[in-house]
Write a structure and sequence with these properties.
Strands 1-2 form a two-stranded antiparallel ribbon. The longest helix has 23 residues, at 206-228. Helices cover 65% and strands 1% of the residues. Helix 4 packs across helix 5 and helix 11 packs across helix 13 (261-283). The chain has 294 residues and is mainly alpha-helical. The chain folds into 3 domains: 1-118, Up-down Bundle (Four Helix Bundle (Hemerythrin (Met), subunit A)), CATH 1.20.120.1810; 124-178; 207-283, Winged helix-like DNA-binding domain superfamily/Winged helix DNA-binding domain (Arc Repressor Mutant, subunit A), CATH 1.10.10.
Length: 294
C-alpha cells in the first residue's frame, strides 16, 4: 500500500525532517563504541543512538530522488529501512565510518523502491539498466541542458559513458519521457473508443478461424475416404495407431488381433503407403495439404 500524501502526512514529514536534522552527528570513536554495543551485546539503546544521528542521510537522499514523482513519505520510509539494514550488517572492526556504510544502504533501498513503483511496467532489471535509469537525466542535462529528446550523437555518448547498448538508451529515454496510460482511457475528442481498442489481436482473426475450420473439415473428409479403401484389418490398425491420442503398443494391438507385433508394424507401414497413394491421386501431395507428416 502506498503512502497517502495528505496535509496530515505532509506535516508529519516536516516534523520528521526537522527532528532528523537537529540531531548532532557522532564522533568516530563514539560511533564505533555504539556499533560494538549493538553488535556484541544486542543493546537496543545503542542501536537507537547509532542510527538517529544519520536520519539526516535519509532526508538528504530522499530529497535527491523527489524528481521521480513518488511521495517523500514513501522515500523516507524506504530510507529508514535501508538505515536499519546497514545497522544490522555493520562490522565496526573494519574501521569504516557507519555514515559511509549507511549511505549505500539508504540509497540502494530508495532506488529499489523507485524501480518497483515508478511505473507499472518493471524497470531496470539488470545492474546496467538500473545505472541507466538513474543516470540518464543527469547525462542528458550535461549534453545540452535542455532535458529534451536526445539526438543520435547524445544517445551514443550516454551509451558509451554507461557502457550499455545504444538500444537500451533509446528504450529507457522513451520510458522516462512518457508515462503509464490506462487501457481504459478514452481516445479522441468524443471518447468513443479506448486505448485497449487499438491493441492488435494476438490470436488468429475470425476469417482465419473460419478458414482453418473449413480446411480441417475438408482434410478429415479426404482422410476418411482414403481410410475407407483399406482392408478391415488395415483400418483397425490405422485408427488405433494413428487416429487417436492414446494409441496402443504394437505388442498390445497384435495380441488383440492374434498376430505378432512385427506383423502389426508391417501392416501399418503398408496401410500408410496406400493412404499416401490414394490421397496423392485425389488432391496432390499429402504432406503439403497436411494429411501426412513429412
Amino acid at each position: 500500500m502506498g503512502y497517502i500524501d495528505t496535509p496530515q502526512t505532509q506535516q508529519a514529514n516536516r516534523r520528521f525532517i526537522k527532528a532528523a536534522m537537529s540531531i548532532p552527528l557522532l564522533q568516530r570513536d563514539r560511533e564505533l563504541e555504539l556499533a560494538r554495543l549493538w553488535r556484541e551485546e544486542d543493546d537496543r539503546k545503542a542501536l537507537h543512538d547509532l542510527v538517529s544521528p544519520y536520519l539526516r542521510l535519509v532526508v538528504s537522499t530522499a530529497s535527491r530522488f523527489r524528481s521521480y514523482g513518488l511521495p517523500i513519505g514513501d522515500l523516507l520510509q524506504e530510507g529508514n529501512v535501508g538505515l536499519m539494514q546497514a545497522a544490522a550488517r555493520f562490522e565496526p572492526e573494519r574501521q569504516v565510518r557507519f555514515s559511509t556504510y549507511a549511505s549505500w544502504w539508504i540509497r540502494s533501498s530508495m532506488q529499489e523502491f523507485i524501480l518497483r513503483n515508478w511505473s507499472i511496467v518493471r524497470t531496470g532489471t539488470t545492474a546496467a539498466q538500473k545505472s541507466l535509469f538513474f543516470n540518464l537525466r543527469r547525462l542528458r542535462a550535461r549534453i545540452d541542458g535542455s532535458g529534451e529528446y536526445l539526438n543520435a550523437t547524445g544517445k551514443q555518448f550516454i551509451a558509451d559513458q554507461l557502457r550499455v547498448p545504444l538500444r537500451d538508451v533509446e528504450i529507457m529515454e522513451a520510458r522516462l519521457t512518457g508515462h503509464d496510460k490506462s487501457l481504459n482511457a478514452t481516445v479522441g475528442e468524443n471518447g468513443d473508443s479506448e486505448f485497449q481498442d487499438l491493441l492488435p489481436a494476438q490470436g488468429p482473426g475470425p476469417e482465419e478461424l473460419v478458414t482453418e475450420a473449413r480446411d480441417a473439415a475438408t482434410r478429415a473428409l479426404w482422410l476418411s475416404d482414403a481410410v475407407a479403401e483399406l482392408t478391415p484389418r488395415e483400418q483397425t490398425i490405422i485408427r488405433e495407431r494413428r487416429l487417436q491420442e492414446d494409441s496402443p503398443t504394437l505388442e498390445a494391438l497384435g495380441s488383440r488381433l492374434g498376430i505378432s507385433k512385427e506383423r502389426v508394424r508391417q501392416i501399418e507401414q503398408e496401410a500408410l503407403a496406400k493412404l499416401k497413394t490414394t490421397i496423392s491421386e485425389r488432391v496432390g501431395d499429402p504432406v503439403a495439404v497436411g494429411l501426412v507428416a513429412g
